[in-house]
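> call design_seq(struct)
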């Protein structure tokens, strides 16, 4: 009987680095996190941008509330997309959003079969060519070549009238693009490579920096060996003088330490997720006088509208202002809705000018350490 492997196109870059990554893990881990939720919400909002040329700004907060995303971060990403799309829209005439793409690859009757599916963010067909694009809401820190080639190969091999295609990675934060092109012959060759390297896996693991993104990391002996080596290497750094040591490191050693620290951190997160899942499924675990259990807590929340008059009696305006955090994006959305359909943008612009004149809005810079491909 054919052994079928089902993966997402987005898993292909990791699969080509280590084919063991697409084999189902024994311990399922919860991969949901805030950046992923922000990306999901952003992609939903980008549909309107592709369809009519603008973001539906009024839809940001409801969309984020439904998914549990950070509306401020999503609003920033939508602004990035709004700036980048006009520069590339001409290359995607009659563009379609969120197009399901699937590739079914069978080696022979007795071999493994791989079914790769994905959703291309943008697809446009002109004559015998297909052009597609994929929004990336993260930093330019990974190579998505095989994901793009997977989309192209699936489309070119499914539709014989198409002769060639190009997939474009749209890096929102950097405002950059990255193109991958493929002919029908290229698609056939890539498919064979996928069969040789991924479907007909030789059983050899290839650990590396990518292990931190693999769902099988916590149970993979090769990844565990790599992690132990990383932990041992970091343990050799004197914690008492770690700042001075880091400052004196050469670039090659600094990049090495950064990669190892990031790997160890991801493994620790995955281990904690797996432990939490086991406790949720099986109940508290007791050993040595200690119990691992899931704690449920509740936090007080004030109904602002009901409490407003009471708070005004108890505090001065300055004291009350120090207790309140205002979401500027939600204020803008409320002003836009009050202005009515077609007048929202002008109302928001007028509000922004008044706040600026009153010096009521300031920008708070923040720093974030990222690694990017040069």
């Amino acid at each position: 009987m054919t052994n079928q492997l089902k993966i997402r196109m987005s898993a292909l870059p990791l699969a080509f680095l280590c084919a063991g990554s697409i084999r189902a893990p024994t311990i399922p881990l919860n991969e949901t996190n805030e950046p992923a939720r922000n990306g999901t919400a952003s992609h939903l909002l980008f549909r309107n941008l592709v369809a009519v040329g603008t973001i539906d700004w009024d839809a940001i907060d409801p969309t984020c509330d439904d998914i549990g995303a950070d509306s401020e971060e999503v609003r920033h990403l939508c602004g990035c997309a709004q700036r980048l799309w006009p520069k590339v829209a001409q290359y995607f005439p009659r563009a379609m959003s969120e197009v399901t793409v699937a590739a079914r690859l069978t080696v022979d009757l007795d071999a493994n079969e791989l079914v790769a599916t994905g959703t291309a963010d943008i697809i446009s067909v002109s004559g015998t060519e297909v052009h597609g694009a994929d929004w990336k809401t993260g930093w330019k820190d990974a190579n998505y070549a095989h994901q793009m080639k997977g989309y192209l190969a699936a489309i070119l091999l499914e539709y014989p009238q198409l002769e060639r295609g190009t997939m474009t990675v749209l890096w929102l934060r950097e405002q950059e693009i990255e193109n991958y092109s493929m002919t029908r012959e290229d698609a056939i060759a890539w498919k064979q490579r996928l069969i040789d390297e991924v479907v007909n896996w030789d059983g050899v693991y290839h650990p590396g920096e990518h292990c931190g993104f693999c769902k099988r990391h916590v149970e993979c002996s090769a990844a565990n060996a790599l992690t132990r080596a990383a932990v041992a290497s970091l343990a050799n750094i004197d914690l008492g003088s770690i700042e001075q040591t880091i400052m004196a490191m050469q670039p090659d050693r600094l990049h090495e330490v950064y990669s190892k620290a990031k790997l160890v951190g991801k493994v620790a997160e995955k281990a904690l997720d797996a432990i939490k899942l086991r406790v949720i499924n099986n109940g508290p675990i007791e050993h040595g006088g200690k119990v691992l259990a899931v704690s449920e807590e509740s936090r007080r929340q004030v109904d602002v509208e009901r409490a407003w008059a009471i708070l005004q009696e108890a505090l001065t305006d300055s004291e009350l202002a120090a207790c309140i955090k205002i979401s500027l994006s939600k204020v803008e959305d409320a002003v836009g809705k009050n202005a009515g359909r077609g007048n929202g943008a002008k109302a928001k612009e007028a509000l922004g000018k008044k706040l600026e004149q009153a010096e009521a809005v300031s920008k708070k810079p923040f720093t974030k350490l990222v690694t990017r491909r040069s």
